[in-house]
């Protein structure tokens, strides 16, 4: 049982957890109308949707994004991970989609495939790989940009069935180059707990939960972006901690720092 609980935790990997960057560095290939952004980063803890993916340890990450002038884009994300009880040590995500605008409303409709090269499901365990479709939206009323996310997977990590994640928040520019970015999210999964005896279905291993984060970011020097973030989720309190993948500290509230440099 504990093994499958750890597998479920890996569902929350997928995406670099940085506040919106204070500056943007890009390379444009005019002849084909493609803009490429490369963002290496180091972080004190790899978090996604409120949960640690490295058991409180640092991570080195790389995000690539190539967008055509038409709005079509492809991307990739790479990070180390550490899941107790598994041989999963790396994550590679592939994404593609279309970005467009309806007046002042900016939309991003895309999908991501989350993979864990080298991972082998143990006997009685379930696959980690899964894909997710997402709609992202933003609307700016300076100096505030409102953002939203709705994501759906037909078969979430751990083969746990349909899953939906909803998130909303805003980015606000402050004095002295700072940006503040609060987010509130809610994760729902079809099969949360161990199924009935004899069932071969996978499961998530934790109840549906809320997650709340607050990030502050600023360009430090030479294009390097520093981000500080505090994260809380509804399994943090004592009554819910035992529901967090068998009592794992993955769900504890924590603070992290990240340094990134977009090129």
Domain tally = 1
Distance between the termini: 44 Å
Strand order of the largest sheet: 2-5-6-7-8-9-10-11-12-13-14-15
Percent range for β-strand residues: over 45%
Annotated CATH architecture:
Beta Barrel
- Compute the average pLDDT: 87
Radius of gyration, in angstroms, nearest whole number: 18 Å
Helix and strand content put the structural class at: mainly beta
**Largest sheet report:** 12 strands, antiparallel, barrel
CATH homology group: monomeric porin ompg
Descriptors:
12-stranded antiparallel β-barrel, 263 residues, mainly beta, disordered N terminus, Porin
Q: Your description of this structure?
A:
- The chain has 263 residues and is mostly beta strands.
- It has a single domain, classed as Beta Barrel (Porin).
- Helix content is 5%, strand content 51%.
- The protein has a 12-stranded antiparallel β-barrel with strand order 2-5-6-7-8-9-10-11-12-13-14-15.
- Strand 13 and strand 14 form a beta hairpin.
- The longest helix has 8 residues.
- The chain starts with a helix and ends with a strand.
- The relative contact order is 0.21.
């Amino acid at each position: 049982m504990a093994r499958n609980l750890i597998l479920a935790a890996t569902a929350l990997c997928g995406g670099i957890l940085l506040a919106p960057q204070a500056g943007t560095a890009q390379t444009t290939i005019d002849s084909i109308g493609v803009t490429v952004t490369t963002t290496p980063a180091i972080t004190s803890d790899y978090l996604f949707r409120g949960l640690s993916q490295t058991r409180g340890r640092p991570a080195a990450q790389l995000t690539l994004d190539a967008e055509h002038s038409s709005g079509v884009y492809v991307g990739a994300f790479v990070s180390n991970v550490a899941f107790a009880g598994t041989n999963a040590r790396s994550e590679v995500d592939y994404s593609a989609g279309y970005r467009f605008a309806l007046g002042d409303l900016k939309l991003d409709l895309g999908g991501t495939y989350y993979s864990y090269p080298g991972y082998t499901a143990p006997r009685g365990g379930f696959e980690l790989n899964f894909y997710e479709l997402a709609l992202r939206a933003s609307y700016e009323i300076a100096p505030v940009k409102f953002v939203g996310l709705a994501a759906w997977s037909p078969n979430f990590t751990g083969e746990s069935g349909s899953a939906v994640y909803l998130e909303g928040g805003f980015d606000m520019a402050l004095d002295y180059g700072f940006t503040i970015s609060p987010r509130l999210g809610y994760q729902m999964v079809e099969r949360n707990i161990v199924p009935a005896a004899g069932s071969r279905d996978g499961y998530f291993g934790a109840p549906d939960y809320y997650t709340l984060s607050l990030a502050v970011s600023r360009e430090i020097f030479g294009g390097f972006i520093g981000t500080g973030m505090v994260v809380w989720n509804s399994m943090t309190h004592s009554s819910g901690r035992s529901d967090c993948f068998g009592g794992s500290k993955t769900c504890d509230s924590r603070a992290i720092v990240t340094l990134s440099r977009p090129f």
